[in-house]
Amino acid sequence: MEEERKKESEFRIKIDRDSDSYEEFVDLIKTSIAAKDQTSLKAMLAGAHPADVVTLFKDLEREEELYLFRLLSYEDQAYSLIKMEEETLESYLEELSVDEISKTIGHIETDETTYLLSYLPSAKRELVLANLSKTDSFEIRSQLGFREYSAGRLMSKDFATVTITDNVRKGIINVRKKAKEIEDIYQVYVTNEDGVLEGFIPLKDLFLTPINTKIAKITNFSVFAFHYDVDQEEVANTFKKYDLVSAAVTDDLGRIIGRITVDDVLEIVEEEASEDILLMAGVSEDERLSTPILQSVKRRIVWLNVNLLTAFVSSTVVAFFEDTISQIVVLATLMPIVAGLGGNAGTQSVTVVIRNIATGDLSFSNWWDAVRKEFTIGVLNGLALGTVTFTMIYLVKGNLTLGLVVATAMFVNMIVASLVGSLVPILLKSMKIDPAIASSIFVTATTDVCGFFFFLGLATVFAKYLV
C-alpha cells in the first residue's frame, strides 16, 4: 500500500504542468507510444490515479490517448471515463467497441455504469446491455428508467442490509458477503421481512456489538431516505444540511432500492453551481473549453438576440426624449451612470436570491422576507449613492438641479433594481422555470428602461433649470 501511494505521488509530480519536467515527460510518453513500447508506458503509468491519467490525455493526440487508455486495467479505464468531460466522454464511447465498454463497466457500481451508458446512442447501449449478465442488464435498465437528475438515477444499487429480526452475527455475515462487491460501506440498512426500510446501523456499531445481540436493539430508526423521484438538487441540500455521509433511496412502498453517498453529492453540487453560473450569463450548461466554436456560437446567440431586443426597448425610451437630450447635451454623458449602477444592483439582488433558492433557504413560505430585505437594501444604497452622485455632479458641473435630478433617478432606480432583482427569480420559480436562465436579462432590461425613463423624464420636467 505504501509503495502504491509513493508511485501515485511521483506520477502527480511528473504531470504537474508548472514543473520544468512536464513537457519532457509528455514527450517521453509520445515517443514510447510511437514505438509501441508497452513495457515502458506501463512503467511510466505505474501507480497513476485514473483522474491524473485523464489530465495527461489533454496534451496527447486522440490516437495517442486511445492507445494509452487501452493499456490501463479495465477498472482504471472505467474510472478514467467517469473523470472525463462530457464531450470527451461521448467521443471516447463512440470509438470504443461494444466488447471494450462491456468489460470496462463490469468493474464499477451501478450508478457509475448508468452514468456512462447514458452517453451512448440507444442502439449501441442496447448492444452493451445485451453483452452483460441478465442480472446486471436488468438492474441497469431499471435505473436508466428513472427520471434524469433524480435520486433514482443518482443512486447505487450496491448496498448492505440486515433484517430487523436477525442478530448481529447474521448481520456481520451479510456485510462480509456484500463487501466483496461494494466499494465503500458507511452504514448497514435495516429492513423488515418485506424489504421496507426501518433504520440503519453504523458499520462500527455492528462489529463492536456482541454477536448474539438482536439487530433491533442497536438500530437507529432516524434514517434519512429519499423517494426515487426526488430531484438531485434537493438530495444535495439535505446532505449538506444534515452532514450526511450516506442515505437510502426507497420506492413507492418504502422498500430500499439503493443508496446515495457523499461522493455522488459532491459532483451534484459542482454540477448545479456551474449550471447556475453559466445560465445566468446566458451560456449553455453543457459548454466546455473543448466545445466546437460554431456549437458555442449557436448556443449563445439565442440569448444575445434576446439582449438585443431589450436593448432596442431601452433605445426607444431614450429616443422619446431626443429633444431634451439635444437641448441639454450633458445628459448623454450621465445616462449610463444611472442605468449601469441600477443593472449592477439588480444583478446583486438576483445572485443572492437565486443562491438562497438553490440552497433551500428561500421558499414560497418566506419570499416576502427576501423582497423586504432587498427593498430596504435598495433604499439605503439609493440614498448613499444618490448623495455621492449629487455631491460629485454639483462639484464638477456646478448645477444644483442637475445633481438633484441624477441623484433622484439613481435613488428610484436602485429601489426598482432591488425589487425586480428579488421578485423575478421568485416568480420564475413559481412558474417552474429555472430562475438562473432568464433572471439577469429581465432585471437588466428593466433597470435600463426605468433608469433612462426616470432620469430623462425628470430632466425634461426641470429642463429650464438645467440649461
From TrEMBL:
Keywords: CBS domain, Cell membrane, Magnesium, Membrane, Metal-binding, Transmembrane, Transmembrane helix, Transport. Its main location: membrane. SMART domains: MgtE_N. The chain crosses the membrane at residues 301-321, 327-354, 375-396, 402-428, 440-463. It is found in: Cell membrane; Membrane. Residues 218-275 form the CBS domain. Pfam families: CBS (PF00571), MgtE (PF01769), MgtE_N (PF03448). It is a multi-pass membrane protein. Homodimer. Belongs to the SLC41A transporter family. Acts as a magnesium transporter. This is Magnesium transporter MgtE. It comes from Leptospira yanagawae.
